[in-house]
Structures are given as structure tokens and as C-alpha cells.
Amino acid sequence: MNKIFSSPEEAVADISDGATLLVGGFGLVGIPENLIEALRKKQVRHLTCVSNNCGVDDWGLGLLLQQRQIRKMISSYVGENKTFEKQFLSGELEVELVPQGTLAERIRAGGAGIGGFYTPTGVGTTVAEGKEIRVFDGREYVLEMPIRGDFALIKGWKADLYGNVVYRKTARNFNPMMAAAGKVTIVEVEEIVEPGMLDPDEIHTPSIYVQRIVLGKSYQKRIEKRTVRQA
Fold first, then answer.
1. Which PANTHER family match (predicted)?
2. In 67-160, alpha helices (H)
3. Which has the closest alpha carbon to 2: 210, 158, 202?
4. 183 lies in a domain?
5. How many domains in the chain?
6. For a pLDDT cut of 70, what percent of the chain falls above it?
7. Where is pLDDT greater, at 37 or 228?
């Protein structure tokens, strides 16, 4: 099975209006820059995006917000994007805020085929409203449901022709669990190598989870906030 696509545009060609997307990244680290740009050009709309955050105004998922392509965001943090704030306050954008650990586990559960899990995080807050509460060993837990996506957009460092993927350092973040939870997983990487060139012990996402691979280019790898100490 040939998993290599010639361009990001070709790789996202069948993503249609109303799709649910799992988008890797934490802040601006490990985001699928080229795939997001391809979606921006495609003008697909009414998307539900699951991501740790929504980028910044002029980069990452913020580019899709600018063109009002996102209908709903499921995130754990949304504080660095003025466009997001305006659209949310005006009622244009639906938002589901999820505690970060719960968000990670809901996505992992989706990839693992788990029907739901209980966590103490959020009990007694608006996060738990309308959800089942159970008591274990005298402590209350809230039932959280798994998250799955029509497509997962993933940023890797290296991949082989089979689709085995290696991430680099903190750019791993949400990417491996999202790769497992997408019905169709599209991975953009900085380098594609021949089978056998990746050490099996280094592989973070096995090829079974990957349907499409595209070689990215012109990475900006922006730093969201640069902090340096005084001389």
C-alpha cells in the first residue's frame, strides 16, 4: 500500500465540510503546519477541531479561525488568540474546554477502543455538569467519554515508507495519541526514509495507525514566547 502523497493539498483533498479533526501540537510546537495551510487554501468549513489550543492569531489553527472555517473547538487552553476570543464572545464559535490531562486521556481512550473512564478531575465544577458521577473508595469521579476524529493531522520528524513515525523531543506531545484516534491519519514529516532505516525501539507511532504520509517543507517552527534572562 502506497502511503506517500505528493503534496499536503493532495493529502487533505477529501476532508469535507463538517469533519472532526484531531490536530497535534502544544502551543506552536509539533503542529502540522503544511496540512493546516492546505486546509486554509481548500476553504473547508464548519470544522470541529480537537487540539490542545488554537494556535495564535496568525499561525497554526489561528489561520483557519481567521477565515471562519472552524465551527467548534475542543481544547484545554485558548488564551493566546484574540480572534478566538472575539468569535467565542460573539457566539460564532462553540467551545468545549477540557482539563488538559482529561483531554489527553479522552483521545488516548478513543484510539484504544475504550468506551469511557472515570476521573476525579472536574468534579464539582462546570466540567462535570450533565455527566455521570460515581463514588469509588469514598471519592467522587466523573465519567468522561472518548474522543475520535474523522481525520488526524499529525506532525512527525521522520517516517519510513510503511508509515512508522518518529517524533522529535517535545514535538511528540499530543501527536501519538491523536494518530491512534483518527479514522484517517495524515502525517507530515521532515524526512522520509527507506524501510529498515528506523530503529524499531525508536518508533513512536507504528505504521498500522497511519494511512497517509506527506513530506513537509519550509517549516517556520515559531516560538510562541521567547524568554531570555538578562545579561
1. ACETATE COA-TRANSFERASE SUBUNIT ALPHA, KETOACID-COENZYME A TRANSFERASE
2. 82-89, 100-112
3. 210
4. yes
5. 1
6. 100
7. 37
Residues with Cβ < 8 Å from 5, sequence gap 6 or more? 11, 186, 212, 213, 214
Whole-angstrom distance, CA of residue 127 vs CA of residue 113: 23
E strand segments, the chain: 4-5, 20-23, 47-50, 70-75, 94-97, 117-119, 133-136, 139-144, 149-155, 158-160, 165-166, 182-189, 191-193, 212-215
Question: What is the rounded distance in angstroms from the CA atom of residue 57 to the CA atom of residue 142?
Answer: 34
* Residue numbers of the domain that contains 70: 4-114+146-215
- Domain assignment of residue 227, yes or no: no
pLDDT above 80 (res 82): yes
What is the value of pTM for the model shown? 0.94
> Is 139 domain-assigned?
no
Instruction: Check: CB of residue 126 under 8 Å from CB of residue 158.
Output: no
CB 12 within 8 A of CB 41: no
CATH assignment of the domain containing 208: 3.40.1080.10
Residue 124 in domain: no
